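== Fold encoding ==
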Amino acid sequence: MQPASHSKISRPIVLTGDRPTGPLHLGHFVGSLRSRLTLQETAEQFILLADLQALTDNAGNPSKVTSNVMEVALDYLATGLDPEKSTIFVQSQVPELAELSVLLMNIVTVSRLERNPTIKAEISLRGFDRDIPLGFLAYPVSQAADITAFKATVVPVGDDQIPMIEQTNELVRRMNAICGHQVLVECAAQLSAVPRLPGIDGRAKMSKSLGNAIPLGASPDEISKAVRKMYTDPNHLTVDTPGQVEGNVVFAFLDAFEPDRHALEELRAHYRRGGLGDSLLKRRLEEHLQSVISPIRERRSLMARDRSVVTEMLRMGNERARSRAAATLDEVKVALGLSYF
């Protein structure tokens, strides 16, 4: 495998990734994977499997994380991410990230971390109260290290992650002020143009643990069953009854997967005035989902037979990531006077 080629023309540097706590699903495909396929053609892209970050709230069950690193890597390759164009690596295999995290931890306070809206929301969601694992509280610092180690200028995130980017840039400015010159680089958040895909049950979040997700490796029958279960408009009792588009999961999915935007607008109008049944909409949606998932499933199945290809891809990605992160870490240590020999 050859190193990822990089144009001499300055391109954005992108850092993105996932917590490997389970195989990826259509929510990931819409929210991040599709944009990564575009970014790998236009940017220098680093994609990390954030296993250390996933352990911050799964330390008591590490196999949930470790067993899924390979599964998520398979999903990446099956969707078309190319290790010749994107550097795909495992967070724990780049120790320079942990060392940079330690240096950044010295310039942020506990109270500042606790004020981070994303952290506050996640603590409440997990019911930690005051029993917060230190690693979890400090994961914005770890995330900042991941971003700054590669001098990423663009970080694709959801709007709930904006406070994390703001905190990263605070740390960058603080470190640069201490060093007396620019060592680390500020980044910009890139928000998805596509709204978050809901679960098939109408919940705001699609999640395997909630049983409301469609995995990228779903069989034709699993896709069909999932579409049939999709929440529509409970008041749309007959075909002739006017239906509501807002909050209708089928329309949310069609927004993400219907390529004919004019036809989609006509479907919306028809549904609102009545005369359009849910079964017709679901058949149209299922056709699109079968078309999207079928090639992903086939590629995934083929690659899963020989996982040595995936292992080699990760090994090469880890080496490239370590080289880049080590260079940044050395710059920081020299600037701080920590280069003694």
In short: The chain has a mean pLDDT of 93. Residues 100 and 329 are 6 Å apart (CA to CA). The beta strands are 13-18, 44-49, 86-90, 154-157, 188-191. Residues 308-336 form the longest helix (29 residues).
